[in-house]
UniProtKB/TrEMBL annotation:
Pfam families: DHX37_C, HA2_C, Helicase_C, OB_NTP_bind, WHD_HA2
Segments of this protein annotated with the region Disordered: 72-110
Record field: compositional bias (Acidic residues): 75-107
Upper taxonomic lineage: Eukaryota, Metazoa, Chordata, Craniata, Vertebrata
Molecular function terms from GO: ATP binding; helicase activity; hydrolase activity; RNA binding
Descriptive protein name: Putative ATP-dependent RNA helicase DHX37
Length: 682
């Protein structure tokens, strides 16, 4: 007879067809514990089936002209069915019956038993292995698969292939990074690959559910992967090899120019590349943006085998003992699909009840893993962290994963990636002494807060703000969020633990387009963190006079409070303390605090003897005083607007600033000051 291999587009379609085929062509499972009587009975039943099949009236199928159907594919929605409601799932079944509307029970034919098996990438490995085993006696193997069975697989006994001619692919927007699953026609090369699955071990045949005219309209080959995905990880690795002008690199298939530009812009914002000079003509500035050299932070990020956003998170996690947690979160975000899919069509009511029970168990565990208080604000990332920690604590067994709705294969991949990232971090920070701890404790509330800040620093371009009531343009915008890159509203995914809380500001891992734009991997952030951690994404206003600027002894820099707005969307953000902006005023404030003895402690002894108040440095008429102009010009000449720059200038010239400073103190103190100048130990 020979086996049958059916190619469909996605996981939901595979399960739907499997369910219908099992009902239409059922077979009785042989009970091996029943002895010879059961075997003889099953053989006798098979003989009866064959005789009844000969007597059965042949059903006339309608004639179908494929040219009457549109070539344009219909979007099938998201691969992840949990984004949809129960009504969506119930209505997603494909009507595979071509008859006159009789019930499935009336159409079922037990004389043609099919051994129907699904096959797709997220299927458990032990279930995938079933397709390579011999089917039960008296049955015909029928494998319903996605394009995972298109290449690199030879299923024994496959004689017939049924090709629907379509495939579900993930598409990325080159600028916004929004991903969506779309059903498209396959290429001619893919069609030939599918046809080649028939007759690998014996002569076979391929049935294509599309006409030859449609086949001739297919593109010859699928577009290379490099043209369809973000390329920031590729750009970073090339920059680490000192290939600065990536746009001029002779790629066999070059990525789109806009994708390269978006990748370099992201890497600059992450601090992985040095900022280009903002001088010269506009054309020169644009060219400089596409040839920025790698920064020291970028070289560290390039050592981690993950996306640059996640590498930035790892590079910032040294403090507060957050590295083990960040490594775990990054591993889970990289692997994806941690949880089992329970919204697939069920074969029987018993299986439906079983799937509902497992889904309820998973939802209960997700609430437990999410924690309370600050830990709960970490959102979906805390659920990932809790799931991995609980699985490792239980020994990462298949039983634990099955009982709690975790994908065993994903947990093993996360374990391997954790080990790989731990080794990479230890190679960069040799004194870190990290190891993969199977008994890792949950993070403290303080650590959970730091983790939220770390995630924000790595996913700065993925910030979203809840749309306020006065901003609602339509009812469909209710509970929606606005992002800087999209005009359309986006929503927190229904599977998120923050779905009902709706924080004002969130950061998300990705946006997936189905019937709506959904954010996945959502974590809550505080608005005051945004200007402090993401200055490249903020436009700052003038420094506030109240509170006034101050000197920071820890950094040796002038600090001030500035209001800001988030770029492109102009969200008003709270005023935060940041470094004073570059300019002549920063030199004036540094001169004032230097005279007051706040920059160099030894100079505080002379602050009471100054001939003029240091506040004169800030007056509009300060130029009328020769001593103010002399000190200011000396600081500007050596670019000394912070303590580190001042110490570097004294190393080059120990007498630097002596003449300018002497103008501020009585002449009787000049000799004493000259003996101990510079007033620091170099």
């Amino acid at each position: 007879a020979g086996g049958i291999l059916v190619f469909l587009t996605g996981q939901a379609e595979v399960h739907s067809l499997c369910r219908r085929l099992r009902k239409a062509f059922p077979f009785k499972k042989i009970n091996t514990a029943g002895g010879d009587d059961d075997k003889n009975e099953s053989v006798e039943e098979i003989r009866k089936f064959k005789k009844s099949r000969k007597r059965k009236k042949v059903m006339t199928l309608p004639k179908i002209d494929l040219d009457n159907y549109s070539v344009v594919p219909v979007d099938e929605g998201d691969e992840d069915r949990d984004a949809e409601t129960d009504d969506d799932i119930a209505g997603s079944d494909i009507d595979l019956d071509l008859g006159d509307g009789d019930s499935e029970e009336e159409k079922s034919d037990s004389s043609l038993p099919l051994y129907v098996l699904p096959l797709y990438s997220l299927l458990a490995p032990e279930k995938q292995a079933k397709v390579f085993r011999a089917p039960p006696p008296g049955t015909r193997l029928c494998v319903v698969a996605t394009n995972v069975a298109e290449t690199s697989l030879t299923i024994p006994g496959i004689k017939y292939v049924v090709d629907c001619g379509k495939v579900k692919k993930r598409f990325y927007d080159k600028i916004t990074g929004v991903s969506s699953f779309r059903v498209t026609w396959i290429s001619q090369a893919s069609a030939n690959q599918r046809a080649g699955r028939a007759g690998r071990t014996e002569p076979g045949h391929c049935y294509r559910l599309y006409s030859s005219a449609v086949f001739m309209d297919f593109e010859k080959f699928s577009a290379p992967e490099i043209t369809k995905r973000p390329v920031e990880d590729l750009i970073l690795q090339m920059k680490a090899l000192n290939i600065e002008k990536v746009i001029n690199f002779p790629f066999p298939t070059p990525p789109p120019t806009e994708a390269l530009a978006a990748a370099e812009e992201l890497l600059i914002a992450l601090g992985a590349l040095k900022e280009p000079p903002m001088t010269g003509r506009l054309k020169q500035q644009l060219a400089a943006k596409l040839s920025c050299p790698i920064s020291p932070l970028g070289r560290v990020m390039a050592t981690f085998p993950v996306a640059p956003r996640y590498a930035k998170m790892l590079a910032l996690s040294r403090q507060h003992d957050c590295l083990p947690y960040t490594i775990t979160i990054v591993s889970a975000m990289t692997i994806r699909e941690l949880f089992e899919e329970f919204d697939r069509p069920a074969v029987s009511e018993e299986e439906t009840s079983k799937l509902k029970g497992k889904k309820a168990r998973l939802l209960q565990m997700q609430k437990i893993w999410a924690g309370q208080g600050p830990m709960q604000k970490l959102g979906d990332l805390m659920v990932m962290l809790g799931a991995v920690g609980a699985c490792e604590y239980a020994g990462c067994t298949r039983k634990f994963c099955d009982e709690n709705g975790l994908r065993y294969k994903a947990m093993l991949e996360i374990r391997r990636l954790r080990g790989q990232l731990t080794t990479a971090v230890n190679s960069v920070c040799r004194d870190a002494g990290l190891y993969v701890d199977p008994k890792m404790k949950p993070p403290t509330e303080a650590q959970a807060t730091y983790l939220r800040q770390i995630v924000l620093a790595g996913l700065g371009d993925h910030v979203a703000r809840r749309i306020q009531a006065e901003e609602l343009l339509d009812d469909k915008w209710k509970n929606a969020y606005k992002t800087a890159l999209l005009d359309d509203p986006v929503f927190i995914h229904p599977s998120s633990v923050l779905f009902k809380q709706l924080p004002e500001f969130v950061v998300y891992q990705e946006i997936v387009e189905t019937t709506k734009l959904y954010m996945k991997g959502v974590s809550a952030v505080e608005p005051e963190w945004i200007p402090a951690l993401l200055p490249p994404y903020c436009h700052f206003g003038k420094p506030l006079e109240n509170p006034p600027p101050s000197y920071c002894p820890a950094t040796g820099r002038i600090r001030c409070h500035r209001p800001s707005v988030f770029h492109r969307v102009s969200w008003q953000l709270p005023a935060v303390e940041v470094d004073y902006p570059e300019g002549i005023d920063r030199y004036k404030y540094f001169a004032r605090f230097l005279l007051e003895g706040k920059v160099i402690e030894k100079l505080s002894a002379y602050s009471r003897c100054l001939l003029s108040s240091p506040l004169i440095m800030l007056k509009t008429w300060a130029k009328l005083q020769p001593r103010t102009e002399s000190l200011l010009q000396a600081l500007v000449a050596e670019n000394c607007d912070n303590r580190d720059a001042l110490l570097a200038a004294w190393k080059k010239n120990p007498k630097y600033l002596l003449t300018a400073y002497c103008q501020w103190i009585p002449e009787a103190m000049h000799d004493d000051l000259a003996k101990q100048w510079p007033p620091v130990a170099l």
